[in-house]
Design brief:
alpha+beta; 4-stranded mixed β-sheet; 12 helices; 66% helix; globular
């Protein structure tokens, strides 16, 4: 007897209840088998998609619920703190993306999760491009800092601009005496903390570690710079983990563990090429998307270099025709930069 026409084919996983649930989950959160993709899209700005990882949502809700019946630091303040953290970190990550695009790279995705933000940036394979992309994030925090400081000063709370992090409770209960001031000060404090945390700690992949790596790359090469950055990052992650345990700050401990694992993974990647081939190709072999991205970046870099050479040729023709004194200030800077690059052999 043949089966009825509308009877589902149970050999097809997608026709079962579990298969339909899996398909629905993947439409909303991403690939079931890759937890890092479990995120909800909330829109895009300037072609940069913003996603919120489910763990961030769980973390924020848990923090608000945990703060119930905890005095001044109750659910109201905790909700404001979570909102400020989201806004500041998101703006920080947009700084990375826009800086990456400015140097000719690609940036199209930001993932918000409990340990911060992950900007999907692919700058050109050059130490200067990587440095500018990294500095773009903290630069946003630097721009925000005087704005929130001026707002606190104008509100008659100059004492809240520079504060002792160990005495936040008394500050919030005395100087900050309204909800709008609480929101303003929290934005200020979170922005200051994100700036200091990212820049002052030389831990890869935090911005401080990436800045150190890019500066070493300039003189030592990419591979050697990663070796040094990963080694320093492992030591600094251990120190940060000890501090987090002593201070009983679970979030900082999570960041320390995550950074330590990233540094260890980078050290393993650096050793792998001895068996698997060239370091520059490691991790992108047989990856069509990565190959296409590298081709686009190479084409963009070649076009940029061709434009720079055409401008240099125009300046040299102008000198031959009218003399060095005929150059504008911008043309002189271009000529000086090109001369320095040719002399040092660096791009």
């Amino acid at each position: 007897m043949s089966p009825r026409r509308n009877q589902p084919d149970y050999r097809d996983p997608d026709s079962t209840a579990g298969g339909r649930l899996r398909a629905a989950f993947e439409r909303i959160f991403g690939d079931v088998e890759h937890p890092l993709t479990w995120a909800v899209g909330v829109g895009s700005i300037a072609g940069i998609r913003v996603r919120i990882h489910v763990l961030f949502i769980v973390y924020a809700v848990a923090q608000v619920l945990w703060s119930i019946n905890r005095g001044f630091f109750g659910p109201g303040y905790t909700a404001i703190a979570m909102g400020a953290l989201f806004v500041i970190v998101l703006m920080h990550e947009f700084g990375h993306c826009l800086a990456c695009r400015w140097v000719g790279g690609e940036a199209d995705d930001i993932l918000m999760w409990p340990l911060g933000g992950l900007a999907s940036v692919h700058p050109p394979d050059d130490w200067r491009a990587h440095l500018i992309t990294t500095v773009g994030g903290p630069a946003v925090n630097v721009v925000i800092l005087p704005i929130t400081s001026a707002a606190l000063w104008a509100s008659g709370r100059p004492g809240a601009i520079i504060f002792n992090p160990l005495e936040i409770g008394p500050l919030l209960m005395t100087v900050i005496d309204s909800w709008w001031l609480t929101a303003l000060w929290t934005l200020h404090a979170v922005n200051l903390a994100i700036l200091a945390f990212n820049v002052l700690l030389p831990i890869f992949p935090l911005d401080g570690g990436r800045i150190v790596q890019a500066l070493i790359w300039r003189s030592q090469g990419r591979r050697r710079s990663m070796e040094i950055a990963a080694g320093v990052g492992l030591i600094a992650s251990g120190v940060l983990a000890v501090f987090a345990i002593v201070a009983d700050v679970l979030l900082v401990l999570g960041i320390a563990v995550f950074c330590g694992l990233v540094c260890w993974s980078e050290r393993q990647r650096l050793r792998a090429p001895e068996l698997l081939g060239d370091y520059e190709d490691f991790g992108v072999a047989n990856d069509p998307e990565a190959d296409a991205r590298r081709d686009r970046l190479a084409e963009r870099q070649a076009r940029k270099e061709a434009e720079a050479q055409a401008e240099l040729d125009r300046i040299l023709e102008k000198i031959a025709r009218s003399g060095l004194g005929s150059l504008s200030a911008r043309e002189k800077r271009t000529l000086e930069r090109a001369t320095k690059e040719k002399r040092t052999g660096r791009r």
